[in-house]
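[Q] Does anyone have a clean structure-token version of this?
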Amino acid sequence: MQPDFRKPAWHIASYPRSGSNLVRTLLETFSGRPTIGCPQSGKKDLPIHARAVQAGRNPIEITDQDPIGYTSHRPSQIMFHRAHVDAPLGFLFLTRRPSAAIASKLLQEHRRFAALSPLKQRRLIETEIDSYLGLMTFFASEPSATKHHLRFEDLVSGSWQDAHLAETLGQLSGVHDDQDIKVPPVSCPKSAGQDDLKSGIAERVARVLTYDDVMEIIIHNS
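[A] Here you go.
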């Protein structure tokens, strides 16, 4: 079945541990359409509604099999989707404070991070900062008319009223104003633990890359 070009569809691009599953959940709920996981992740990155079914939870109601979003955490994954999806995709960029996202990812992937040598720790942190900046560069190169930015902190902090969040997600999903759809509860990703170590990594990241740096790039290229 050929995708319907009149329906909005998005690259859902974010650095890992930045709330992409939260955004996918919201978009699937609003649109009734599935989101596709990162390329080559297979059964590890199912559409959110399918995970709910597997877990025995109330599933999101999917009424249209034409995907609303395609998930990527690296520029190469964005290019993969572009090569395999016929529909024109907008660019939905989700950011989380780089110090928090990078610290969370490193501790999720390296449970014995504290036991690594100082040189190995520094190289891992530098590599992740480069990865975060790589997505920023990709976002900056996108045409302004096709991209949209969401801050993870806005989604979970309560700084947005439900009406504002519903309006934004409705626009992204192509939902009509007269549709009565409730915003599901939103929450932070589960902590990878080791709070003291996480704080130490976050401080080291913040010396190099801050959220102010990220927002300056986004505002300058919007």
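[Q] Thanks! Anything notable?
[A] Strands lie at 10-14, 35-36, 69-72, 90-95, 147-151.
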